[in-house]
Amino acid sequence: MVGRTSAKRVLIVAGEASGDLHAANLVRSLSAIMPAVDCYGMGGTAMAEAGVRLIQDLRTVSVIGLVEVVSKLPVILRTLRSLVREAVRARPDVAILVDFPDFNLRLAERLKGLGVLIVWYISPQLWAWRAQRLPRFAAVVDYMIVILPFEVDFYNRYGLRVHFVGHPLLDIVRPSAAPEEILCRHDLKQGSVIALLPGSRRVELALLLKHLVGAARLLYAADRSRQFVLPVASTINMRELEPFLPKDLPIIAIENSTYDLLSVASCAVVAAGTATLEAALLGTPQVIVGRVKPLTWLIWSRYTRLPYYGLPNWILGERFVPELIQHNAHAAAIAAELERLLASEQLRESLAKGYEAVRLRLGSSGASERAAGLVARILDGDSTIERFRK
């Protein structure tokens, strides 16, 4: 087939930990199909390990919230210009933009002016907020690859075409060992583990972690046998956690073990984002939490009314996983919700049924391979693949 023996250049850009992971798996699958492919761009540790030449580190631009973006705007703009300059120099055959909508949309608009084909992998959550940006996406995106089943109907309603490949987490969310081995490895006791997941961005640590630690303090006061684990995201440096973790609480921060720790946890408190779906796939009873800076919340709450914040709830279209957002996400409320989960077998069974329904709706395994197959066909110039635009 044309293109399989000649090198193709791919600019690939991710801006957060989950995007880094999914981009890395896509690159591995694409390299298996097209061994000569040259991938470069912005990402993190996972993308680097997959063979991507990083010209920018995602940690320089990974923020949430309108106010937070403004404070880092000079850095964001410098990073954007750097990627565009590299695209001008290296002339990619395709740009793969992974979620991270505010940054990647601006990048797509600039790349489109250079004549670069735009593949968007993992749709931005336009179905949740700011759907008015759809015309801007339609003007620059050539191929949209989505991983959530309801996104197909959403885009079709607007006359746009997408490609659903299933969710890549189905292939990777699993513990590395049996529960007994994981517990022994980390010196944990069966039935006493509570997981704290404050998010993968520094700003989330600042906004959420003190409330998670406060909840842990209340839970520990009620039962001294409880142990708390804090899985550390790849985008967070262990030293950044030290100011938040008191010495008088049994909170263990552990790197590179998120799935293992969630799999042995009796329950978890999880920042809204990809980790809520990971917890669901592992069957961990959870409470979803979220906070942004007060001014950001004032703006968002004035113009946006979201029915849900956690991905499991979006997928089923109902709030079956408890959510505590903004001013409701404080230590006492978090501790109370976790106590409810620990005390009620009925609640845990209800969550387990919901989790199974979520898994069924996500499609079958092999999403990264299917997405890579689409990209390979695009690189080969396959004109039979429907574009995002009519």
What does this structure look like?
This protein is α/β, with parallel strands linked by helices and 390 residues long. It has two domains: 174 residues, Rossmann fold, CATH 3.40.50; 186 residues, Rossmann fold, CATH 3.40.50. Helices cover 47% and strands 16% of the residues. The protein has 18 helices and 13 strands. α1 crosses α18 and α10 packs across α16. The two termini are 27 Å apart. The N terminus is likely disordered.
In the CATH hierarchy, what is the class of the largest domain?
A: Alpha Beta
Number of strands: 13
| Count of spatially separate domains | 2
- Report, as a whole number of angstroms, the end-to-end distance: 27 Å
What general form does the structure show? globular
Return the average pLDDT rounded to an integer: 91
Range of strand content = 15-25%
CATH homologous superfamily placement of the largest domain = Glycogen Phosphorylase B
CATH topology of the largest domain: Rossmann fold
Which key terms come to mind for this protein?
390 residues, alpha/beta, Rossmann fold, 2 domains, seven-stranded parallel sheet, six-stranded parallel sheet, 13 strands, globular
